Amino acid sequence: MSRTRSVADSAPGIHRRTVLAATGAVALSAGVGYALRPSDSQAATTTGTADAPVASSRKAPPAPLAPYTRGTTLASVSAPRGSSGYRRLGDGPGWERVVRDELAAPRSGRAGRRTALAAFVQLTDLHIIDAQHPLRLEYLRSTDVHAWRPHEALTVQGAIALVERINALRGAPVTGAPLHFAMTTGDNTDNNTRSELDWFLKVMSGGRITPNTGDPRHYEGVQNSGLKLYWQPDEAARDADKQAGFPHLDGFLAAAIREVRSPGLNLPWYSTVGNHDSMPLGCYASHGDSYLTEAAVGGKKLMSLSAAEAKKLQDAIKDAKDPAGVQYHQFLKTHARDMRSVTPDEKRAPFTPTEYLKAHLDPAYRGLGPAGHGYSSANLDAGTQYYAFRVADDVIGISLDTTNSAGHYQGSLGEGQLRWLERTLRDNKDSYAIVFSHHTSTSMDNTLPDPARPGERRVDGDELLALLGRHRNVLAWVNGHIHRNDITAHTGADGHSFWEISTASHVDFPQLARIIELVDNKDGTLSLFTTLVESSAPHRTDFADLSQTGLASLYRELSLNAPGASTELGGKARDRNTELLLKKGSTTRH
């Protein structure tokens, strides 16, 4: 049972070990079956010496006296005005912190004893979208209103505002400890497209971005198509969304594709891969299908489809009837004459897993590092996208690859990766472990044979839960994919417990990221504090403000009003701002 409690705690001491990771965590291994001594703070990777932390002229804001609420959802949350029609947003009351005691009882006086061990930020499901890409499935909206979002042209502006919010944080809200790093838990891109990958890496590491492909002079896509199925912001004509109250905004599309600038995160960041990063449309295993590549970079785009045909295609995707994309390939050929002309662009080509790794390792996208953002040349050599890294003397992070190159949007692990995970946890048994992945335990049921590793068994979420439950150093499994806040207590067969922390997407309302703090209560228990944050964009929008900041505000408000959108993705109070208690594992150092 969870209970609501006051957490007006006095500032705890900051553990000396939290300083280690504040300058950039250190690689432990790169997913090839090796691990370093858990006491090594500047150790070699499997193929060479780890890169030194990168100096930067960016200054992190000073840590406050803890605790603090400003800039978090503890202080204020965007709140809808009205209950029907197009709803505007404004300032709403913050969300309280809930103490969850399913796995350990809270003991009085722990706030005064508390010692900070680690603190980081999780971003997930940014879904940076090339909204004009020829292989998008907007036309499925004819059968399902969720299939296209009216705010999809503003994902870059929204993600930059989230980076700005994280940069403005004054440390960890409960402990005041420095934030060690940020971790993205997959679906960083939306359509496995080089343009989106470039924009994502510049959002995170800093740089100028022109969120436009095709014709450099103007937008070409469904939002200036004249089709009533989509919101036509620059046109006065009544489309389906305007009938629901969406505004007429002259100059919206021109503003959406203007150059913007991201400051980049002012702390090191790490990357975890998701199904939308791995496969076109997040579900098709193209395996180098030349036709799909030609369609992606070519000059034709399908924008409308009958509801019956859309339903047939959507069901094939949902039920994994065509994971290799063979039927989709034929579908595109069948509808070639129904397509509209757009400007071809090579930047829209899909990227391979190798290209994904090389882009992360590119010095142009390094920002504050670390080099590779968790990935290394060892990953390139082994063809893997999982790794471990040291967060602090007592804490390691483990990033998993739960995608399946056989296709379909659900996930699983290869048995080889499972064995690597078990070795990594065993070899670092004296360190607490935080596990990261894209998929959740309930969305790992895709056990189709992986063509990249023929003959290897695929492992589902239940088997992964069982493994994590056998290792007493595992404290949390942090993930995304389901686009909602959800926190679940798990207990293994031998009684060891840990928390699964799933965080909502930043493409769907309420567009959140999550700060996670690990503390030792010095009473035989640990606490994981979770605190949600919104982007820096003002809650209130101004339809006349089409600046970078104004568009970021509009991004949030449009996401609230997207047909089929639900405020319930924010989760219940017990899934948002929390204190999650755990008993200390007997095999973990004290």
Describe the 3D structure.
The protein is of the alpha/beta class and 590 residues long. It has 15 helices and 24 strands. The strands form six sheets. Strands 1, 2, 6, 7, 8, 11, 22, 23 and 24 form a nine-stranded mixed β-sheet that branches. Strands 3-14-15-17-19-21-20 form a seven-stranded mixed β-sheet. A hairpin with a 5-residue loop joins strand 20 and strand 21. Helix 3 runs parallel beside helix 4 and helix 3 crosses helix 15. The N terminus and C terminus are likely disordered.
Number of strands: 24
In whole angstroms, the N-to-C terminal distance is 28 Å
Apparent shape? globular
What is the helix tally? 15
Structural class: alpha/beta
Helix content: 10-25%
Oligomeric grouping of the chains? single chain
Mean pLDDT reading: 89
Gyration radius (Cα, Å) is 23 Å
The largest β sheet comes out as:
9 strands, mixed
Strand content: 15-25%
Uncertain residue ranges: 1-25, 32-61, 586-590
Q: Quick recap of the structure?
A:
The protein is α/β, with parallel strands linked by helices.
